[in-house]
Amino acid sequence: MTPELSFSLPADAESARIHEAYRRLIDAYLRSNHRRKVERIEKAFRFASAAHAGGRRRNGDPYILHPLEVARIAVAELGLGSTSICAALLHDVLENSDYTSEDIEDACGPKVAEIVEGVARISGGILGRAAEVQADKFRKLLLSMSSDVRVVLVKMADRMHNMRTLDALAPEKQRRVADETLYVYAPLAHRLGLSRFKYEFEDLAMRYNHPQEYADICSRVVDSEAERRRITEEFVAPVRRRLDEAGFSYEIAARVKSAYSIFNKMEKKGVPFEEVYDIYAVRVIFDNADDEDEKLRCWQIYTFFADNYQIHPGRLRDWVSAPKANGYRALHLTAMGPAGKWIEVQIRSRKMHEIAELGFAAHWKYKTDDTTPEAELDTWMNTIKEILANPGPDAIDFLDTIKLSLYSKEIYVFTPAGDLVTLPSGSTVLDAAFAIHSDLGVHCVAGQVNRRLLPPGHRLESGDQIRIITADSRHPAPDWLDRCITPTARHKIKTFLRKQADNAAPGQASGPGQPDSPFLNPA
Ligand code: MN
Predict the structure, then answer these.
(1) Segment 431-455, tens digit of pLDDT
(2) What's the 91 CA to ligand 1 centre distance in angstroms?
(3) Nearest Cα to 385, choosing from 194, 159, 144?
(4) How far is the CA of 154 from the centre of ligand 1 (A)?
(5) CA distance 390 to 382
(6) What's residue 480's pLDDT?
(7) CA of 161 to the centre of ligand 1 (A)
(8) Bridge partners for 453 per DSSP
(9) Dihedral (C-alpha) 208, 211, 214, 217: value to the nearest 10 degrees?
(10) How far, in Å, is the centroid of ligand 1 from the Cα of 386?
């Protein structure tokens, strides 16, 4: 089934809005560095228009405005090309119409269909209900994305538009979407080097989760702006002179922390606004024709600060020589500024800056002429895959940001093979054994938990590594029911006991003795 492709716009106000949105998308595409494949995009737009015909968003807008804006974000804010734009235009077609992925494949090709399917899979199966967002599912999400990272990037653009238009939802739904954004999408954006997405996700989430605090922090930031400017200007004045003398083309900006990062610090450290906001930060961005001397120029600027101010020796970070796993590069230092204030300084070339802010979009911008866009994309995707396959030293931080504590009703334990098992909080070794496999459950003697041998009734904690110790001669006895809490384990034990009672001669049904385990029959 292919939708009717004859397409004309009736001249009413709504159609004019749709047409305007489409024009903005095409403008953004034509401004980008991509090969011009406008026909392809137009075809996908017609398909999406037919599929969403008559559909409305919750705020009353024609539904097609949503995929159009998602596609615009994909090209203008993520730097993606025509394949992703088509997929973005079609990303809700499977869910909201009778068209199938075969239909999409016929109209727009197999790659677009594959990405659309991937996006639908993330929306429906893995992250559909915010309450069910769990660390292991997040891991699955990461694994699913490594097949084609464009799936996740289109999903990011989708989430960004949904967050920017979250007003239309009921408050309860707003909070769930905001939570999911905070705990899944913001860390993912960080991981992908999309710092602008990360900050916007966090601030938008905070606006809905903590509206009062959000408004409060924003107004305090505005109030203290002038004083801030005065202090940073005084601080950078001698550095400006040196930069000018050395012929640098540059800009220096006082860096303002995002509302969420201020809020987060206040909460975490239990300190008032003034104390968090008292940390001053400036950024020096210099233009640089030649990549070769980037590093040298960073250190040259470092000396402009060091010649004027005391540099904190413990807070020097050279991300230029050793970039972060997500590709971030910059030289960070902290100097003692006017009135004894420590001031954080980031020194970046223009290219380093844009890569930090825009991630992939900047990669496109700086692509060299001898690589095709597709080759460039492949290289980038392989880099992401590598990071995910071999997480670097900051992988632990990354997992931390998923905030396991949010899901305090559940714990996550690792099997020897590294699989993550989700259990209700309070679960024991025996519960884990049954959760992994019935056979492990019915023969469970003990658990080796983080290398310590512990009885089946031992309560597990999130992050435990557990190996189930079994013996063929071991079988459930009635008192096993006191050593587990999960319905699965209890049900399987009861089933076993019932079968045993049925099979045994009358009088023996109270169960065999279990003398060989010190754990099951404590003295
Ligand atoms: Mn959508």
Answers:
(1) 999 999 999 999 999 999 877 899 9
(2) 6
(3) 144
(4) 9
(5) 12
(6) 96
(7) 8
(8) 448
(9) 180
(10) 28
Whether the CA torsion 399, 404, 405, 406 is positive or negative: it is positive
Separation between Cα atoms, residue 344 and residue 412, nearest integer Å:
38
SS3 content of the chain, % helix, strand, coil (to 5): 60, 10, 30
> Which helix (H) or strand (E) element contains residue 317?
strand 317-318
Task: Read off the pLDDT of each residue in 6-30 and give the average, rounded to a whole number.
Answer: 83
Phi, psi for residue 315 in degrees, rounded to 5:
-115, 25
Enumerate residues 6+ apart whose C-beta is below 8 A from 295.
320, 321
% of the chain at pLDDT higher than 90: 43
357 CA to centre of ligand 1 in angstroms: 24
* Residue 356: its H or E element: helix 350-358
Q: How far is the CA of 340 from the centre of ligand 1 (A)?
A: 50
Count Cβ atoms within 10 A of the Cβ of residue 336 and give its class: 0-12 exposed, 13-18 middle, 19 or more buried.
Answer: middle
Report pLDDT digits (tens) over 67-114: 999 999 998 988 888 999 999 999 999 988 999 989 999 999 999 998
**Which residue in this structure is represented by tokens 């008559």?**
54
Q: What is the mean pLDDT of residues 132-151?
A: 53
Q: What is the pLDDT of residue 468?
A: 95
The percent of residues above 70 in pLDDT, for the chain, comes to 76
Q: What is the DSSP letter of 254?
A: E
Distance 294 CA to ligand 1 centre (A): 41
Q: For residues 459-465, give the mean pLDDT.
A: 79
Residue 51 Cα to ligand 1 middle (Å)? 13
Reported as a pLDDT band with limits 50, 70 and 90, residue 5 is very low
